[in-house]
Write a structure and sequence with these properties.
This protein has four helices and two strands; from the N terminus they run ββαααα. α1 runs antiparallel to α4. The protein is elongated and about 90 Å long. It is mainly alpha-helical. The chain has one domain. Helix content is 68%, strand content 4%. The two termini are 50 Å apart.
Amino acid sequence: MAIDSTSSQPRRACPKCGESIVATAAKCRFCGEIFEDALRASSEAPAKVEKIGFELRGLGGFWMFIGLLLGLFGFIEFTEPGGPDAVGITCMVLAPVWLVVGLMTRFKRLWAVYCGLALSYLVLLGVAASIFTDPDPLAAVLGVIFIGIIVLTHRSIRAARKMVHAGVPLN
């Protein structure tokens, strides 16, 4: 019979599985429950970074899609007889901005997320102004989409900042 060297140490029950473990244990050897906050944070970090990365890739993809749509609309305006109007020129100027912001967001650059958030607020203000001047159901749908994007962006920024302040790199 093997001698258990831990039998002389004080023991306690694991709060998760109820097995008897050493009172100073940082992790239950039976169920894997982690008791120390620092150890728990380091073991959860990869999953959190992956979740944040997934959200940022989604935001970046959406903003790149907006940039492509603006570029397409601006191109159509430029090819029409009579040349582009102010809306067409604005679309051609903003299209590469949205594309760069989207691309850099996909690479987990927080400055790009803040820029995308600011641009999203500007779009939401423009949509709100257009709804008040000429009620349009399409504008209302666009406003709801951008409200959702703004909420998701704030959540992603908050989670990313917590990770960065904890010393966990996002890349």
